[in-house]
Amino acid sequence: MRVGILATAAFLSVAATSEMTTGQFLAAMDKAESLGPAALMSSDVRDLRAESDRVLTLYRADIARQAKTGGPRHSCPPPKGEGKMKGEELKIYLTGLPAAKKKQPFRTALYDFMKQKYPCK
């Protein structure tokens, strides 16, 4: 019994660190929406938020690094806290992607979205 619990915990920790595809992210968004107010207590929502935070942290670090080196920038978002991205806006973008792009990492889709939303001029 104890071995089964440890194996399950190990599997869950590996799954939590693997990168979500765009399709998996969309499915998690849909599931969260279907839960209504109960979504706030859902582990699925915590996982969704953790993945969003992880990818946005990577994105911000990449943008900061590009700005620091003075080279070409991927995109030009407003400073942190000044621009607000609505979840519905992102969902519309992700839903409109072709099936092949939904198999790519969520990170790739978010970077593409940010490039479209905040192009450098």
TrEMBL record:
Residues 66-85 are annotated as: Disordered. This is Rap1a immunity protein domain-containing protein. It comes from Blastomonas aquatica. The lineage of its organism: Bacteria, Pseudomonadati, Pseudomonadota, Alphaproteobacteria, Sphingomonadales.
